[in-house]
Amino acid sequence: MYVVRNSFSSCGFHLNSSVMSGSNGAKENSHHKARTSPYPGSEVQRSHVPNEKVAWLVEWKDYNPVEYTAVSVLAGPGWADPQISESTFSPKFNEKDGHVERKSQNGLYEIENGRPRNPAGRTGLVGRGLLGRWGPNHAADPIITRWKRDRSGNKITHPISGKNILQFVAIKRKDCGEWAIPGGMVDPGEKISAALKREFGEEALNSLQKSSAEKRELEEQLQKLFSQEHLVIYKGYVDDPRNTDNAWMETEAVNYHDETGEIMDNLTLEAGDDAGKVKWVDINDKLKLYASHSQFIKLVAEKRDAHWSEDSETDCDGL
């Protein structure tokens, strides 16, 4: 992960796992953060977009969005596209463009006046803001889990729900002090699976600061964990305050589960890169994470039939 791009998964800017209702509109409640002002890292105010005018299918002749792309993006770092107006730049939208993945997880998006159009609807701002790519900007969120065990190695069940307690690796972000899934941006040409493993190593195991020998040992253990069967918890559009009419965040959240706990027992958690702290956290409905991260964690608990809530109505499947 690169320093400038760390802001790409920074606090309050993350995911809303609402699934969209097609390429031209957004379901209710799926597109709020992408309309907030001021735009992150600036004093730029978006044009106001009322709920009923979010969908592109709704005609709005007087729509007049503000244009904004951050100076850090316009400086032309390796992770960012040039401006659309540059004659040497001819991106292939809706497909793999060299090493850059311009396909969306949500299907085809429309191109208008040479610019991609946000599939969730209007945001009140055009350009790229803080995002490097025109169109989708892809992130990866690895959710690493194990069963909570007592000193004898037995799984611990919750006294009320009667279900086993699941734990996941959480990082505390330096930039805002909130606990989160250790994720980040996918590099050009990088497979999602590789990005998930790299991000976890960098943020939860401090792999960037290890010696060559330590890195080899780390890689061996991580390979065991990441080569197991896994659950794709969510993939698609992310409601994010950095989104614009022409650039938006997407993620793939994947659960890798260490059933016996033996793999993670051989790995020492150590915060690295943009993580301030890292620890195992018990999964339950009282977790205070990014709103969407909590939704992902809840889905993991459901898929693994683990404890989530003390409310018998929501945790016992109607029994």
From TrEMBL:
Q: Which organism is it from?
A: Equus asinus
Q: What does this protein do?
A: Hydrolyzes ADP-ribose (ADPR) to AMP and ribose 5'-phosphate.
Q: Where is this region: Disordered?
A: 21-46
InterPro entries in the record:
NUDIX_hydrolase-like_dom_sf, NUDIX_hydrolase_dom, NUDT9
Which cellular components does GO assign to this protein? mitochondrion
Query: For this protein, what is the EC number?
Result: 3.6.1.13
Which residue windows are coiled coil? 201-228
Ranges for domain Nudix hydrolase: 147-303
Protein known as = ADP-ribose pyrophosphatase, mitochondrial
Q: Does this UniProt record's set of keywords contain Coiled coil?
A: yes
Question: Which terms are listed as keywords in the entry?
Answer: Coiled coil
Per its record, the protein catalyses: ADP-D-ribose + H2O = D-ribose 5-phosphate + AMP + 2 H(+)
The Swiss-Prot or TrEMBL record describes its family as follows: Belongs to the Nudix hydrolase family. NudF subfamily.
Q: Report the SUPFAM superfamilies cross-referenced here.
A: Nudix (SSF55811)
Q: Name one GO molecular function term.
A: ADP-ribose diphosphatase activity
Gene (name only)? NUDT9
Tell me how this protein assembles.
Answer: Monomer. Interacts with GLOD4.
